[in-house]
Amino acid sequence: MMFRLHFLLPFCFFLFSISYLAFILSLGSTTMIGDNYNYDPGGSIVPVTATIILGLTALWLMITHRSQENGDKTETSVGLILCNITISIIFISIFRPVGFILSTGIVLYILILLNLWAEKREITKKSGVAWLSFTVVYLVVMYSVLRGLIKMSFWLARHYGWTIFREPAMQAGLVALTLALLVYLIGRMLKRVHRSSYIVAMIQTSVATTLSIYVVFRLMFLVQLPTGLLKW
Asked: How far apart are alpha carbons 137 and 139 in whole angstroms?
């Protein structure tokens, strides 16, 4: 049973990713957006990227597979897999109404928390929920700051004629640098507030990963990501 769960399941995902990648590439190149900056990566960039990540993750799980003889660990692994699948389905259903930023950040946080609990890390349910609330506020504030920076770039270009600030590459660079600096500073603050490195890593990973994807796809590739509840 353990062998099947820890090897056959990733193996099936790996085969699926190869098949899906071949299917996407067989469709040919299509235009995603009609921009004037030649940054259009094509309509297949998002599914190709997601499929490659899925395939590499499944391959890594197969390579690092180790049989376990403890029956309790088998039950825990089954429950964890089912939880991950359920949360993934929920993520797909709330992605558009809730928006990319909130849905991605919250789901990442929950997935990391579940995996930490499965590894018997000392994180209470009360603490997990409390820091989830903080993560949501953290995401909203960071997103607002980055959106304000983008609007300021357009304002500079409009009022002072600095057209370079209209360039997607310039805006993406400014936002990426600001994001890296703020995440670093807030990370240092969190380490002083909470001694648990797992809590800090969980929050930082959720927020930084979500906003990094936002910078790459929304600002560099100009992909229209759902705003959902964040209308500004």
From this structure: 5
Written as tens digits, the pLDDT of the chain (232 aa) is 444 555 666 777 777 777 777 777 666 665 555 555 555 566 666 677 777 877 777 777 667 665 444 444 444 566 777 787 788 788 888 888 999 899 999 998 998 898 888 777 778 888 889 999 999 999 999 999 999 999 999 999 999 888 899 888 899 999 999 999 999 999 999 988 877 788 999 999 999 999 998 988 888 777 778 889 998 8
CA 4 from chain centre, in angstroms, equals 28
